[in-house]
Each structure stands twice: as structure tokens, then as C-alpha cells.
Design a protein that fits this description.
This protein is an alpha+beta fold. The chain has twelve helices and 13 strands. It folds into two domains: 1-62 and 306-341, Hypothetical Oxidoreductase Yiak, Chain: A, domain 1 (Orthogonal Bundle); 70-182 and 225-304, Malate/L-lactate/L-sulpholactate dehydrogenase, NADPH binding domain (Ribosomal Protein S8, Chain: A, domain 1, 2-Layer Sandwich), CATH 3.30.1370.60. Helix 1 (9-21) packs antiparallel against helix 2 (27-42) and helix 1 (9-21) packs across helix 12.
Length: 341
């Protein structure tokens, strides 16, 4: 395994911001994106963390992603937002949606935001958690470039298509459930590739349809879905919720999140939120406390997301460990952007 270096959260965020600024990304977009990447790294979601900086930077430099995009929003329905990410990074568009949905849901009880012309969603659970911190119950869906076959088919056609859910808890952090519909998120394979590590053979197939432990071969092949046929059906459901419902590209139409060439991916995300006091007649928090207590009483059971919170606390206290190779690659991006490459 490669040597690692330790960075404080502030150092990691500064490193990301400088790399993005050096790659023709505007300051506000760089800050929004860097914050999301560092938060993912701190939560233990390395596939959505700093390993993304080289590919994000390359795509901004090539123009595949518009690093200066300013997302716009319209309200075509009483409780519906439509957000155009303008072929920029997803995070500024998601910021706009997450800042507006609580105001809307406070009046309508239920609200949604459809984001299109977008890019990599990142850590889906973080967006749902942000909405839960505003007192809402939140569902988040996104599609992504082709990685999983239609069930029974031979070619990758749909993305790994994450689903996230979050609900506020009275006396603790929100309950967050975050899962990709492949056995693992594709970003974990990228992180393994960048770290020079092998992967388990039940994560992916190579381009010949054979199990592989080589990250590079897996990136050229297809991911395996959770739950076989049932999992593939869920992948299709999310593909429709995230792409058809938003008017975005399907996975087989979207270009790679990892390559600098090609058109913008143009994928979509759908956010649905509920104002739980309204929907439950004021009983939601009591019901949440009841089920959380039941889980905590159950022998051997634990709430989903507890590992994420432990990782976050440790990162705040001790900083982040990233591979020396990754840090060197990010620093080379900064030097090149400053004319010293």
C-alpha cells in the first residue's frame, strides 16, 4: 500500500480549492465542491472524496464541466422546483435546491426539486442529511453514467444510481440511509485504483463479463447490482425518477464522470421532502423516538449511519489520511495551473 499523509480538514479543503481554482473553476463553485469532497472524505466515503479532485480538475480544464456555471431555478408548480445545473458541478445546483426546499415545504407540506444538466452527485446521504437538519424528511435519487446492465442484458446501460433517505431525530443527529444500487459505489473502485489496491472479485465484471479484482479492468467493465433481478429493477426505478422525471440523460447517454473527453454528462437528481409535523399530525418525532429506542434495545442492532458519525468525529479530531500519491497528484495540478508544472 502507498504511504499516506495526514491533513487537517482545513488543509484538505484548501488543497481542493486551490486545485479547482487552478483548473478554471470559479471561486464559489470551487468552495462548494471542495466542501462536499472533504465532507465525504471525513465521513469515510473516499470514493466521493479527494480521489475525485484529479478527474474533476481535468474535466474543468477540458470544458467538459463548466467551472463557472451559475445554476438557475424556476418553479413550474406550487411545490416543484426545476434547477438547471448548466453543465457545471452538481454541488452549486444542489446548494440552490437545498436552500429553497425548506421554505417551500413549510407552506406546501411536500416539495420536490428536479435537477438536470448536472454532474456527479457525490455523497447522496450528505444532501439528505442537510435537509433533515432543516427538519424535513428527505429522499434523494440520482442516476449516473452507464455501469450496470439491464437485467439479462450484456452491456452496461444504467448507472449505479444512489438512493438516500434522512429523517430528523430530536436528541441526536438525523437518521441517514445512503446506498448505491451496485454492490459498491463505483467511486470506491476509483479510490482503490488511485491507491494501488485490489478490489474484491464480487464487486464488478471486466469487459469480457468475468469477475475481476483489478480496479482498472472493473472501470472498463460493469458493476454488479445488489439483489440480482430485484436490485436491477430498483436501478431502473431510480433511472426513471432521476433522469426521465427531470428531463436529463439516461446512463447510456451520459459521458463518464472520470474522463476529460466528451460532452457534459447531463444527468439528473430528484429531491423529495416532507414536512413531518404536517404529515403526521404532530406525531412524527414521538414515532421516530419510539423506533430509534426499539433499535437501540434490540440485541446486536445498530442505527444505520453510526459509522459515518464516528468517522466524522475522528476526522475532526485527528484529520484525514490520504495517499501520498494522491496528494502529489493534486499538488501537481496546482503547480500546473500556476504555470509551474
Amino acid at each position: 500500500m502507498n504511504d499516506s499523509v495526514r491533513l487537517t480538514l482545513a488543509q484538505a479543503e484548501d488543497l481542493c480549492i486551490r486545485a479547482l481554482l487552478a483548473s478554471n473553476v470559479g471561486e464559489s463553485n470551487a468552495r462548494s465542491t471542495a466542501e462536499a469532497l472533504v465532507n465525504a472524505e471525513a465521513d469515510g466515503q473516499k470514493g466521493h472524496g479527494l480521489s475525485r479532485v484529479p478527474s474533476y480538475s481535468a474535466q474543468a480544464l477540458s470544458g467538459k464541466v463548466d467551472g463557472h456555471a451559475e445554476p438557475s431555478m424556476e418553479r413550474p408548480g406550487t411545490a416543484l422546483l426545476r434547477v438547471d445545473a448548466k453543465s457545471g458541478f452538481a454541488y452549486p445546483a444542489i446548494d440552490l435546491a437545498c436552500e429553497t426546499l425548506p421554505q417551500l415545504a413549510a407552506v406546501t407540506g411536500v416539495a420536490s426539486a428536479c435537477v438536470y444538466q448536472s454532474h456527479h452527485l457525490g455523497q447522496a446521504g450528505a444532501h439528505a442529511e442537510r435537509l433533515a437538519n432543516s427538519g424535513l424528511v428527505a429522499l434523494v435519487f440520482s442516476n449516473s453514467p452507464k455501469a450496470i446492465n439491464f437485467w439479462g442484458g450484456r452491456e452496461p446501460m444504467m448507472g449505479t444510481n444512489p438512493i438516500a433517505f434522512a429523517a430528523p431525530c430530536t436528541n441526536s443527529a438525523p437518521l441517514v440511509i445512503d446506498l448505491a444500487l451496485s454492490k459498491v459505489a463505483r467511486g470506491k473502485i476509483l479510490a482503490a485504483k488511485n491507491a494501488g489496491e485490489m478490489i474484491p472479485t464480487d464487486w464488478a465484471l471486466d469487459s469480457n463479463g468475468m469477475p475481476t479484482d483489478e480496479p482498472a479492468a472493473a472501470m472498463q467493465g460493469s458493476m454488479l447490482p445488489i439483489g440480482d433481478a430485484k436490485g436491477a429493477a430498483l436501478v431502473l426505478m431510480v433511472e426513471l425518477l432521476a433522469a426521465a422525471l427531470t428531463g436529463a440523460n439516461f446512463g447510456y447517454e451520459a459521458s463518464s464522470f472520470f474522463e476529460a473527453t466528451g460532452d457534459a454528462p447531463g444527468i439528473g437528481h430528484t429531491f423529495i421532502v416532507f414536512e413531518p409535523a404536517m404529515s403526521s399530525g404532530g406525531l412524527f418525532q414521538e414515532r421516530m423516538e419510539s423506533i430509534v429506542a426499539a433499535i437501540e434495545r434490540a440485541d446486536g442492532a445498530r442505527l444505520p449511519g453510526t459509522k459515518r458519525l464516528d468517522n466524522r468525529k475522528k476526522a475532526a479530531e485527528e484529520g484525514l489520511m490520504i495517499s501520498s500519491n494522491l496528494r502529489a497528484e493534486i499538488e501537481s495540478i496546482i503547480r500546473a495551473g500556476n504555470g509551474n508544472g
